[in-house]
Amino acid sequence: MKQKADSTHRYSTPTNRVLADHVFLFLNARASRLQKKCGIYLDKNQIELSIIELKDQEKIEYAQWLLSKTQMGELPDLDKATILSEAYVMLSVSAMKYGHVSAISHEPMPMELTKILPRFSKVFEQTYTRFLDLQKAEAQAREAHVQLSFERVRARTMAMQHSKELSEIAVVMHKELVNLGVTPFLNCGYVEIDETNKIQYGWSTQPDGTLMEPYSLPLTGEPALQHRYEAWKRRETVFCQTLSGKDLRRHNAFVSPHLGSQQVDEMVKKFFPDPTIFYCANFSHGYLSIITGNQMSEGEVSLLTRFRKEFEQSYARFLDLQKAEAQAK
């Protein structure tokens, strides 16, 4: 196994007197002499067991490296002081297919106990293989659900007979995002940008997933709108904007007289949380919009990007219908 520039270490210490019970630590292994020493062993992957002992100044330097270069630096000051006070550390390391299993002690461990570690390593390798298999199956099942959601959006798109039906795609997207378990959100929809008249038109759902009245907003005129418009001009894939306190109040006060819908205005005043987070997935004619009080995960933002691509097909269908309707007049 090649030694990577970054590796993830997980340590559980339910009985260690130095760390609090059941602490899990995630360490980025970089330039430490000890980590290099372990890395050489792991590269060779020939010896079942490697024992490393550090004491006195070498141990202190290693402890200082851990506390300054890894997340162990986030431990309480008392725990850090205790780690630094220890004069000796023994690490027993056993390689496996996916990395290594290690045992750490501040006293010499009996050899008969240390030699058990390679057996645990083999068992854990099987456990981790099972974990990867389950992880893969879960990802495949998740992707199947995502594709089914996309198919529902596509089906509603193909069923459109009039351009005005585009707004109903927002209802379908709201339902599918909820079905996929996306972090709870206030509403979702789409915004169409009209640069010629410096205005944007929006169609969004209510918190219960039903469609609200259409609304309009200036493209610019206050900082939040300006930043949103600039992100669209840059073709930023997903623009995330968080407004809170006086910035949120200023924004809401500015847009209120421009919305053109009492229903939307009341929703903004009644339901917009503090802070309010705006997610804008930009496409050529505007952006998909999700408004929420909760931060979306990286995976959820990626999902929004994929919904944007599906909506672009819906919008192309809308333009075709719009053109046909104009020709029929």
Descriptive keywords:
48% helix, elongated, three-stranded antiparallel β-sheet, 11 strands, alpha+beta, 329 residues, six-stranded antiparallel β-sheet
Protein architecture, described:
With 329 residues, the chain is an alpha+beta fold. The protein contains ten helices and eleven strands. A six-stranded antiparallel β-sheet has the order 8-7-6-11-10-9, sandwiched between helices. Strand 6 (187-194) and strand 7 (199-204) form a beta hairpin. Helix 2 (56-69) packs antiparallel against helix 3 (77-85) and helix 5 (117-158) packs antiparallel against helix 6.
- Number of discrete helical segments: 10
**Biggest beta sheet summary:** 6 strands, antiparallel
Strand order of the largest sheet: 8-7-6-11-10-9
Got a strand count? Answer: 11
What best-fitting shape do the alpha-carbon axes yield?
elongated
Catalogue the unreliable spans.
Answer: 1-5, 20-32, 38-46
SSE arrangement:
Blueprint: E1 8-12, E2 24-28, H1 33-44, E3 50-55, H2 56-69, H3 77-85, E4 88-96, E5 99-105, H4 111-114, H5 117-158, H6 167-179, E6 187-194, E7 199-204, E8 215-218, H7 223-233, E9 238-243, H8 245-255, H9 262-271, E10 276-283, E11 286-292, H10 298-328
Antiparallel strand pairs: 1-2, 3-4, 4-5, 6-7, 6-11, 7-8, 9-10, 10-11
Helix pairs in contact: 2-3, 5-6, 5-10
